[in-house]
């Protein structure tokens, strides 16, 4: 009806158009997802052609989204609340609710956990002279990584980057 196809042509026979259309669709999905979630869209290779690499990238994007959502996106909600007027700045109170001093554990504990876990894996891959020596190293670094993970898990709410602004109360 729009004159895109000639009389008698069928859309199913237009492989070039289908490829262009699907790529434009997937590119648009990627642009929207990057704005909303910070990563490209998941499953865009279904639209194009499913590959093993696409499956790996979906997993990677899911991990990045999980990290961003829990540990680095609180400021986005604060910005939206300020922009939409859901939070009003109190001119009387000099302290900003956005500035919260982070404790040493926010940097030190994740680094300790990653180093300890890496050392545990290295000790497993590069065995010592005896199996008891290897076992001792693996147990030490494994318990260090498990211990720091348990501390991080116990203090989980402190590590999450939650929005710091509260909704302003409804004025009647």
Automatic annotation (TrEMBL):
Keyword Transmembrane appears in the UniProt entry: yes
GO molecular function (one): phosphatidylinositol-4-phosphate phosphatase activity
Origin superkingdom: Eukaryota
Stretches that traverse the bilayer: 106-128, 134-154
Entry's Gene Ontology cellular component terms: endoplasmic reticulum
Keyword annotations from UniProtKB, A to Z: Membrane, Transmembrane, Transmembrane helix
UniProt record, GO biological process: phosphatidylinositol dephosphorylation
Name of the protein in question: SAC1 phosphatase
Organism: Chroicocephalus maculipennis (Brown-hooded gull)
Name of the gene encoding the protein in the UniProt record: Sacm1l_0
